[in-house]
Specification:
With about 650 residues, the protein is of the alpha+beta class. The protein has helices at about 15-80, 90-110, 120-125, 135-145, 150-165, 175-205, 215-235, 240-250, 250-265, 275-370, 395-450, 455-480, 495-505, 530-545, 575-585, 600-615, 635-640; strands at about 495, 515-520, 525, 555-560, 565-570, 615-620, 625-635. The protein has a five-stranded mixed β-sheet with strand order 2-4-5-7-6. Helix 6 (about 175-205) runs antiparallel to helix 10, helix 8 (about 240-250) packs antiparallel against helix 10 (about 275-370) and helix 15 crosses helix 16 (about 600-615). Mean pLDDT is about 75; it is low at about 640-649. Keywords: Kinase, Membrane, Phosphoprotein, Transferase, Transmembrane, Transmembrane helix.
Length: about 650
Amino acid sequence: MLTKLPTLPALPGWNSIRGRMAIVLAVPTCLLLVLTGLGVADRAADWSAARGTEAQVGVLLQVQGLVRELQRERGLTNGLLGGAEEYRDDVRKQRDRTDDARSALRAVLSEESGDLPDASASALDDAQIPLADLPVTRAEVDTGTADRAGTLAYYTKAVTALVDAESAGAAHGERRITEGVQALQALARATEAVALERGSLNGVFAAGRFRGGEYLDFTGIRATRLAALGQFRQLATPAQQSDLDAAFKTAAARRVGGYETQAERGADGSSLNVAPARWWRDMTTLVDDLHDVQRTVGDDVRAVAEDSGSAATRELAGFLGLGALIVAVATALAVISARSITRPLGALADEADAVAGTRLPTAVKRIQEANPDTPHPSGPNDPDGPQLPGTAREITRLAAALRNVEHTAVGLAAEQAVLRRNSTESLASLGRRNQTLLRRQLGLITTLENQELDPNALAELFELDHLATRMRRNAESLLVLAGEEAPARSWPGMVTVTEVVQSAVAEVEQYRRVAAVDVEACRIRGHAVAELSHLLAELVENALMFSPPQQQVEVYGWRDGAEYCLAVVDRGIGMTLERMAEANALLSGSGSFLTAPTRFLGHHVVGALASRLGAHVELRPTAGSGVTAYVALPAALVREPSSPAVVSG
């Protein structure tokens, strides 16, 4: 046994063409948007990195400003502790500049902390911790209790912490930016080495000789400077290297080199005759020149970061615009594609509705009402049909197929009309012929009845007369079904209802089983007698057919206001409610007898006769069992005449 696979739920909107077009176009559109989103994310990362680099470089330059002031304070303080009292006023003024630089750095950090990398912001916060002891160190220097080596080490520790913090949270992004930041950090270490050498030798020259391990510190500082400068030259641009070379080629830098040569000769602790003020002045010029080179490098890095940020912004805007364009194009394509399909399909649906509701019925009616001898068209009036919007071949084929269906339907309707007309005319012709023959036959039988004296033979003639009467009713039924005019039999004046009932009973085979139980007196107009008698005969015969052989069929008649009602009651097998509803529909005159089963032709005859008379016929269940046929005659047929009517036949 095969198991039916579960049906997957339909996608939202899949039940309409517009929805399907939207879904089909949404898949590649989403893929394009994903690719565009990746580009946007990449450009956004570059833009964020560029902004972070700009902020970091700005903070680094501010840190370098504080480092520069601390380096000057360190060098002057070391000279003061070495015995150069002329530095005391300079030390006091330099402390104020250092404090201003600290305040400026705090302000910049509070503004730019959101754009800095977390590692860099944290490192800069930690680097300012050693500066908390700066007031204590200054107080010891002022009271003369400070140790020169210890004080130099404290300042160096504070400066080194700030320089090391510059390396934390290194920028990641474009190679030029990364190398520029690294070059700036290398130059900061080299400048710190030069400034540390300035401060260290300032104390040595003030004291007149190296003491303890000061010479080893001097050589270590020079080695650090050379290593940092070598790293800077590897990372710097040719223009930045040229600026550095220019800083070391000034007259002050050359004199610094001479002082360093003299210091090298004092490695054994011999006396050094170098004026501290001259050393400080020339060395400060070199340090300031290096700081200028630092600022130039920082400006270059910031400019590159700004250019990268601008480029990233433009590319980001381009990707966003591309995404919007993709969405707009996809939406436009979906709308245009859907309309190119739905509009012609809508036009085809409208045309199909017009064909089914107006054009085809009109064409069929025209064919049916046309003169049989006049040629009729086999298709609609407009064989080409309306022009549909859109030129898709599939839509054109569908429109052509619809018009072919219309042509074929009209052609079939024409053929059916001809067949129905021929059938109707054949029935009418047969009915007329039979009616004529039966009229002659009844005339002959009447003549024979008048001449016959033998009772047995006369009885047989009466039976033959009754059989011919029934045959005449069948011939008249053919004429009724064919839509012919009322039968030629007619009575002038008015005829009693009892006589009409008797005439109807005389036209059925088992007339002995029919009883007019209670028929209230009334008269019927003569022109309606034949058709009413025919109608009652059909109902009575139908009741006899579906009743037991020994059971009577009863006929009742009574007035109901201006109308007159007749009832044909049988107590046979009865009918289901569904079948009774179908029969009542036929009795109301709806439906075509050409498509009805032969056992229902009597209902069509009754319905047609009732329509001619303006009467209403309805079947209802009989109490107990069986069916009762009610006939309501309009007042126009039962109005009493001013004088008695004479029955004639």
